[in-house]
């Protein structure tokens, strides 16, 4: 077999890593290389595959160590039975690529995942060795995210946490039945046991840092996970419930949602087409409601339809407000922060400004208008000094009045 060049390997393994969405880096420790010490930095706007508010593209070298895999998960393009080109990096090659790209100012860190080759322990050893080379031999101070393997030994996963800024263990699918059917080589109990061990190690390290000044940092960016949406029959109710339990049980930094994408030579048990991308978007919005707006999981899923899925034409917060109109209108001059956060169109920043402003003056409708981009959306749900919606909140056609209008975009517009 012809030996692949580094560039050819990079093309294969970077493309194979694109299905993993969990690569943000918020919350990590701040390090820099000022004074000529070390290489790299985690300071600035943060690192992720996105654009910063100033338009700057922030990126990681996001690759797999190898796309060879002994598992045969139906939804995975790199599964054992998949007919795709295979490649494999050594730990030294990944470290060299990371340093080379960093020096060219292409990247600000590394996101490293891998297929399972030989065994979970063997693969995890290779990933940990990559991070060790960067940290210990080159004093690399940039961001490192390692996708850990739940089947690997706890000792190896612990070493990964000592070297990485963030670690993640994918739960893959929201239900045990879905995981059993589509990923027969994986076990939900093993995955959650590994996540529990990681949670305990992170908490112990934080406690040690409080008591001992030079205690080592352990995954300062926390742990995250990812769920595939639309590969099995799980509803949004199942997904939101699973996410809520993961946040509560393992104190995850983030749960990521990835819409299933059809793959070459797909298994017959998979759907023929991907779910609407807006479904993924609605799940992220529901996630925000639980994390920042004080909604419980059962409140979010109460906005779902009879099929258990969130509406696609309106966001979950508006869907909840329309379904529970007895909670409204909310008086912006008297109501609690918790109730203000439930008003469609009011974000956390706007609510904070309302609370600060009403200490000094009584708010009128025009004052609220300055804090939002769509006053028409908010008016049916609030009371101000000079405004009361009267029967507007109870109108049968309220959704049609305030829901975003659907537009057919031009292909070449």
From TrEMBL:
Domain of life from the UniProt record: Bacteria
Location of the Radical SAM core domain: 53-296
Cofactor: [4Fe-4S] cluster
SUPFAM superfamilies: Radical SAM enzymes, RuvA domain 2-like
Keyword Iron-sulfur attached: yes
A Pfam family per the record: Radical_SAM
Key words of the record: Iron, Iron-sulfur, Metal-binding, S-adenosyl-L-methionine
Gene3D superfamilies for this protein: Aldolase class I
Keyword ATP-binding (UniProt): no
InterPro entries cross-referenced by the UniProt entry: Aldolase_TIM (IPR013785), DNA_rSAM_put (IPR023874), Endo/Exo/Phosphatase_dom_1 (IPR051675), rSAM (IPR007197), rSAM_sf (IPR058240), RuvA_2-like (IPR010994)
PANTHER family, A to Z: ENDONUCLEASE/EXONUCLEASE/PHOSPHATASE FAMILY DOMAIN-CONTAINING PROTEIN 1, TYPE II SECRETION SYSTEM PROTEIN K
Name this polypeptide is given: DNA modification/repair radical SAM protein
Species per Swiss-Prot/TrEMBL record: Alteraurantiacibacter lauratis
Lineage summary: Bacteria, Pseudomonadati, Pseudomonadota, Alphaproteobacteria, Sphingomonadales
């Amino acid at each position: 077999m012809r030996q692949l060049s580094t560039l050819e390997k990079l093309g294969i393994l970077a493309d194979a890593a694109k299905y993993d969405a969990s690569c943000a880096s918020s919350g990590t420790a701040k390090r820099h290389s000022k004074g000529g010490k070390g290489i790299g930095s985690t300071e600035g706007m943060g690192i992720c595959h996105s654009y910063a508010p100033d338009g700057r593209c922030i990126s990681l070298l996001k690759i797999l160590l190898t796309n060879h895999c002994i598992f045969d998960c139906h939804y995975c393009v790199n599964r054992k039975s998949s007919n795709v080109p295979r490649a494999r990096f050594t730990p030294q090659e990944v470290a060299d690529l990371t340093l080379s790209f960093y020096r060219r100012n292409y990247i600000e860190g590394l996101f490293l995942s891998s297929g399972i080759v030989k065994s979970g322990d063997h693969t995890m050893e290779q990933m940990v060795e990559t991070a060790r080379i960067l940290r210990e031999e080159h004093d690399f101070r940039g961001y490192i995210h390692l996708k850990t393997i739940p089947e690997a030994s706890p000792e190896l996963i612990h070493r990964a946490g000592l070297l990485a800024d963030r670690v993640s263990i994918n739960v893959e699918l929201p239900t045990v039945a879905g995981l059993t059917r589509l990923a027969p080589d994986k076990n939900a109990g093993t995955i959650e046991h590994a996540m529990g061990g990681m949670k305990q190690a992170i908490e112990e390290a934080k406690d040690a840092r409080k008591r001992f000044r030079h205690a080592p940092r352990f995954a300062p960016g926390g742990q995250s996970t990812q769920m595939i949406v639309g590969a099995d029959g799980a509803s949004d109710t199942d997904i939101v419930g699973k996410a809520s339990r993961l946040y509560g049980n393992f104190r995850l930094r983030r749960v990521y949602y990835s819409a299933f994408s059809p793959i070459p030579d797909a298994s017959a048990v998979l759907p023929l087409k991907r779910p609407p991308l807006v479904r993924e978007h609605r799940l992220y919005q529901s996630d925000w409601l639980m994390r920042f707006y004080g909604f419980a999981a059962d409140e979010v899923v109460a906005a779902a339809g009879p099929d258990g899925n969130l509406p696609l034409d309106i966001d979950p917060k508006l869907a909840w407000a329309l379904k529970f109109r007895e909670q409204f209108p909310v008086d912006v001059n008297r109501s609690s922060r918790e109730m203000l956060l439930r008003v469609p169109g009011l974000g956390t920043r706007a609510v904070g400004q309302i609370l600060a402003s009403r200490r000094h003056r009584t708010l009128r409708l025009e004052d609220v208008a300055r804090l939002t981009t769509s006053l028409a959306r908010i008016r049916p749900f609030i009371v101000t000094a000079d405004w009361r919606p009267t029967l507007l909140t109870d109108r049968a056609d309220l959704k049609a009045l305030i829901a975003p209008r659907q537009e057919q975009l031009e292909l070449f517009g």
